[in-house]
Amino acid sequence: VRHGLREGTLDLAVVALDRGQQRGLVTRLLSYEEMVLVSAPPRALTGTGPDGTVTLAGAARLPLVDFTPDWAIRLCVDRAFRAAGVERETALEVDDIVTAAELVRSDLGVCVMPASIARASVPMFSLAR
């Protein structure tokens, strides 16, 4: 897609871009959303601050349900952990929100996702910013 934009075979694309991928392109932010960590209610979230936040270091100690590397959500999550200097391991990798929600609901792990998706997909979960 980015190649097509640069070459002129595409006029417009809605994509998730890393800063390095923006070279030579005119971009406009269409949406920005807070990411949240979702977990089954009984799970004790380590690294929880008094304001309800969970540190990335705390999240990295939990079994993480992650999306495949080609997902925009995964790109954002990878970037956040990298920027914080926190290494993590993916316990389970999925390619759809429904499966991620079911795995979290079954308390097989936690998942980072946009707040609107979390509210729509997993209303009974514990949400942490």
Question: Can you describe this structure?
Answer:
By secondary structure, the chain is α/β, with parallel strands linked by helices. It is 31% helix and 17% strand. It has 5 helices and 5 strands, in the order αβαβαβαβαβ. The chain has helices at 2-7, 56-60, 72-84, 97-105, 115-121, and strands at 35-39, 64-67, 90-94, 110-114, 126-128. The chain has a 5-stranded mixed sheet. Strand 2 (64-67), helix 3 (72-84) and strand 3 form a beta-alpha-beta unit. The longest helix has 13 residues, at 72-84. The protein is elongated and about 50 Å long.
Task: Annotate the secondary structure layout.
Elements: H1 2-7, E1 35-39, H2 56-60, E2 64-67, H3 72-84, E3 90-94, H4 97-105, E4 110-114, H5 115-121, E5 126-128
Q: How far from one another are the termini?
A: 32 Å
Query: What fraction of residues sit in β-strands?
Result: 15-25%
Please tell me what the overall shape is: elongated
Spatial ordering of strands, largest sheet: 3-2-4-1-5
Number of helical segments? Answer: 5
In brief, what are we looking at here?
This protein is α/β, with parallel strands linked by helices and 129 residues long.
Identify the notable features of this structure and list them briefly:
single chain; elongated
